Amino acid sequence: MDVVDHLVYAAPNLDAGVERLESILGVRAIPGGRHPGYGTRNALLALGPETYLEVLAPDPDGPEPERPRLFGIDRLDAPKLAAWVAKESDLEGRVEAADRRGVRLGEILSGGRERPDGSVLAWRLTDPHVVRGDGIVPFLIDWGTTESPARAAPKGCMLLRLRAEHPDPARIGEMLLALEVELAVELGRAPALIATIGTARGEVELT
After folding, report:
1. pLDDT reported for residue 35
2. pLDDT band at 120 (very low <50, low <70, confident <90, very high)
3. Residue 110 resides in a domain
4. Which residues on neighbouring strands pair with residue 109, listed in sequence order?
5. pLDDT tens-digit profile of 121-146?
6. The whole model's pTM is what?
7. Are 83 and 126 in contact (CB under 8 A)?
8. Containing structural domain, residue 27
């Protein structure tokens, strides 16, 4: 689980997504901030010292983005585990290596958001609009010298396992291999991410 930076729990409404997670995990995510240009805002809870869960939803107070919101949020009628993000300190090298193996990760972008306290987080990442493997293949992030948001997020949960299902697990496996990322992918009717999370109530599966 060391490679997992964070999981994305996409929701059509942030408050509803936070409420649902609290009912499942017993921990309430706290507001993270807004994403300028993306039309989204988030809330966070920790899944380990350097790993966290991001509830991502439309920002009703922000302008409409020029592109559709990430992870099909505008089409959702219920929250779902929509994507995951892997840690990578050499984005340029990884993008080039994956490209040679036929996996396109898109441009490397700079990202940032303002926290509720006014401080700013900054990072670099591969383009999250480039969907690979129906969301089973991660995009990559490098926080540089910025502290992981997991450190300030509510504690009480731990990511124990992450696995996936897909109608074509062999193809997805080849894509993950190109990124040198390990993830168990089993045959399933539809693409799905399944996270096993340890909580005070025991282990639960989040999809």
Report:
1. 86
2. confident
3. yes
4. 125
5. 789 999 999 988 999 999 999 998 88
6. 0.93
7. no
8. 4-155
Residue 99 lies in a domain: yes
Tell me the C-alpha distance between 62 and 3, whole Å. Answer: 32
Tokens of 19: 């409420």
pLDDT of 114 > 80? The answer is no
73-94 pLDDT, tens digit per residue, is 999 999 999 999 999 999 999 9
Beta-ladder partners of 108? 126
Q: What HEC string does the chain produce?
A: CCCEEEEEEECCCHHHHHHHHHHHHCCCCEEEEEECCCCEEEEEEEEECCEEEEEEEECCCCCCCCCCCHHHHHHCCCCEEEEEEEECCCHHHHHHHHHHCCCCCCCEEEEEEECCCCCEEEEEEECCCCCCHHHCCCEEEECCCCCCHHHHCCCCCEEEEEEEEECCHHHHHHHHHHCCCCCEEEECCCCEEEEEEEECCEEEEEC
CATH at 29: 3.10.180.10
Q: Which residues contact 57 (CB under 8 A, 6 or more apart)?
A: 10, 11, 12, 13, 14, 17, 40, 41, 42, 73
N-to-C CA span, the chain: 17
Does residue 39 form part of some domain? yes
User: With b meaning 16 or more CB within 10 Å and e meaning fewer, what string describes 115-127?
Assistant: eeeeeebebbbbe
What amino acid is encoded at 78 in this protein? A
